Every structure is written in C-alpha cells, then in structure tokens.
Amino acid sequence: xxxxxxxxxxxxxxxxxxxLGQILGFILNVPSQVSLGFVALPVRRQHWLAVRxxxxxxxxxxxxxRAPVPIGGEAELRIFLRDFLSQGFCEVFLVVPRAVEExxxxxxxx
Length: 110
Known about the structure:
Cathepsin B, Chain A; six-stranded antiparallel sheet
C-alpha cells in the first residue's frame, strides 16, 4: 500500500459497478494449492497476483505463470474476476489514481 501511495495511487475494495476506464489494475489475493514437487498437499495458502490492461487487453500477471497470459477485454475480465471470487477466500483490490479514489470515480453511475 505504501508503494502505491508513493506513486499517487490507491487500492480500493469493491467490484460493484466498476468503471474499468478509471482503474489502472487489480491486485488479487487468491487461494493457492501447496505442493511438494508433483504432490499436492491438503493445505491451502493465499497467493497474490496482478491484472493489468495494455492496449485494450487485460493480462494475468501471476508470478507462477511463465509469461503474462491474456485474459481478453472487459467482458472477459469480469468473468475472470467472478471466477476467482466464486472460489471463496479471495480479495480483489482496485488500483486507481488517488484523485479517482477520492472522487469515487471507479464506480459507474447507477
């Protein structure tokens, strides 16, 4: 959070009525399977990953992936986020400029 604030950015907690044009990226805290080599253990822990848009395409920037994975456009992003949230124990932060946070402009009008 301190790193974001030093760049005049903020993290926000909601997914309702997202104004995607105002959001710079997403930080997700998701459940992750623990494994030893090829053996999956019956233990889960949380893992952080980021999502960012570049030239109209959103990318999954998970460090466990070999390279960024394209998610698609806005409709695909919303499905991607819903899928993670449906797993439970998932948190999604919106990365927005401080002015957008203060104005609440990351939400679309009803």
